[in-house]
Amino acid sequence: MNYSEQDKILALAGCFQAAWCAKGIARRGIADTDAMEAAIHSLFQTDADDVPSIYGGAEKLAPGLRQFINQVRGTGGRDLEISRYVIALMQLERKLSANPDMLGRIGEGIDSARDRLNHFHLLHTNILGQLADIYSDTISTLQPKIMVQGEPLHLQNPDNQSKIRALLLAGIRSAMLWYQVGGRRRHILFGRRKLLGTAENLLNELVV
């Protein structure tokens, strides 16, 4: 199947959006609800018709697009913490993709969590808690571990811990999608101008 540059940038924006939300919870105890819902929504989409529908629509990734643009252009101030999280998510995804047994366990866990969506909304503590357990039992055993920085008051809150882990799992999902639609590390290193142009054009279309 042929994928477009827009598909690549949406997947990459998904990574940045998950990292941005995780940072917000760690630093301030809050994250944009719509942005977080789009990230968590992606975990349950295994038979989507296209890339935008994985997140509930391309417009749901506007925050992630803005974060990517800021990182490349630096106009809104580069956030090295978010970039560090995204790089780690990309690295962990490569480790995960080489581990079919772990992939299977994650899939089974997400299927189990999906059944609960009949009774709880997407950001309910029961759903996020189950997704967090999946992350703890699988991804967190891989190297490099993602060390999330923030305020101890927020990081020590069990609900916030669940949100952060669930978001990191969603970030892995987007990193996997990035590779599935043809994204490669060299595109980020040497093709940022092209990705930036696609991101800016798409964001302009979404906010009109």
Look at the structure and give the mean pLDDT. Answer: 95
SSE run: HHHHHHHHHHH
CATH superfamily: HflD-like
Q: Radius of gyration from the CA trace? A: 16 Å
Q: Which percent range describes the beta-strand content?
A: under 5%
Identify the CATH class.
Mainly Alpha
The CATH topology is YcfC-like
Number of strands: 0
Computed structural class: mainly alpha
Helix coverage percent: over 70%
Anisotropy-based shape: globular
- Put simply, the count of helices is 11
Count of structural domains: 1
Distance between the termini: 30 Å
Task: Furnish the topology, listing elements before pairings.
Elements: H1 5-28, H2 33-43, H3 51-54, H4 62-73, H5 80-97, H6 100-116, H7 125-137, H8 152-155, H9 158-180, H10 185-190, H11 192-207
Helix pairs in contact: 1-2, 1-4, 1-5, 1-9, 1-11, 2-9, 4-11, 5-9, 6-7, 7-9
Report on the structure:
The chain is mostly helical and 208 residues long. It has one domain: Orthogonal Bundle (YcfC-like). It has 11 helices and no strands. It has helices spanning 5-28, 33-43, 51-54, 62-73, 80-97, 100-116, 125-137, 152-155, 158-180, 185-190, 192-207. Helix 7 (125-137) packs across helix 9 (158-180). The protein is globular.
Compact overview of the structure:
By secondary structure, this protein is mainly α. It has helices spanning 5-28, 33-43, 51-54, 62-73, 80-97, 100-116, 125-137, 152-155, 158-180, 185-190, 192-207. The mean pLDDT is 95.
